User: Which sequence fits this backbone?
């Protein structure tokens, strides 16, 4: 089944404790992205990657890091989490090839709480 | 800067009604438009994807239309059911390697 897999689904952590949220896709998509969703603010892009070893900032990158060492994986790293990073996070992937349509596939989400 | 608007923010209808959800966007130079469904606290499920060259797409009871020149898309749901209750999000993509710009969504409640 074509899918984007995120782990963990739920995470409660303390301020300043480094954490990583993993993301993997099995569709050989070139483009991967992280979004956060907050009430009243909607979905906002954090970071994206157009292919292996190519990453760039989205709209709200402060406090986050990413890496793209393999095509299928795109982990989100919070080096020193703070309470304002409490949110619902989504990983997504898409092909940038015209003949593959370019639609996005989203993971099931990670509910992060920073106390 | 692309802006996507979905009005109203919430909608309540009786079961069986046919309904239309609206989406408008400010920049007509889009690559594609995608409609998603989101259940509370859950992930986004893609419903329909419309390429910039297309006018509509259909899947079961759902039909989405696209009018690029006027910056509008509609999602038509036929014979609504309580199981259709969810938030419906519209999102546009500017180019092949572009992010999705989302509307805030319409929260639909279908009453039995």
Assistant:
């Amino acid at each position: 089944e074509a899918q984007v897999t995120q782990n963990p689904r739920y995470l409660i952590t303390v301020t300043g404790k480094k954490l990583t949220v993993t993301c993997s896709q099995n569709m050989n998509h070139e483009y991967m992205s992280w979004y956060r969703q907050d009430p009243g603010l909607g979905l906002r892009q954090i970071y994206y990657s157009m292919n292996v070893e190519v990453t760039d900032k989205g709209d709200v990158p402060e406090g986050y890091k990413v890496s793209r060492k393999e095509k299928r994986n795109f982990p989100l790293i919070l080096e020193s989490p703070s309470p304002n990073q409490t949110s619902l996070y989504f990983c997504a992937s898409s092909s940038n090839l015209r003949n593959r349509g370019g639609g996005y596939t989203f993971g099931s989400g990670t509910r992060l709480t920073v106390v | 800067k692309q802006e996507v608007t979905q009005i109203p923010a919430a909608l309540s209808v009786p079961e069986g009604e046919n309904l239309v959800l609206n989406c408008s966007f400010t920049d007509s130079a889009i690559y594609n438009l995608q409609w998603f469904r989101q259940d509370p606290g859950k992930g986004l499920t893609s419903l329909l994807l419309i390429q910039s060259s297309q006018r509509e797409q259909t899947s079961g009871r759902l039909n989405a239309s696209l009018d690029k020149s006027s910056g509008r898309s509609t999602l038509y749901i036929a014979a609504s059911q309580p199981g259709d209750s969810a938030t419906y999000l519209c999102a546009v993509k500017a180019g092949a390697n572009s992010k999705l710009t989302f509307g805030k969504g319409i929260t639909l409640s279908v009453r039995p």
Remarks:
- The first strand of chain B starts at residue 4 and ends at 5.
- The mean pLDDT of chain B is 94.
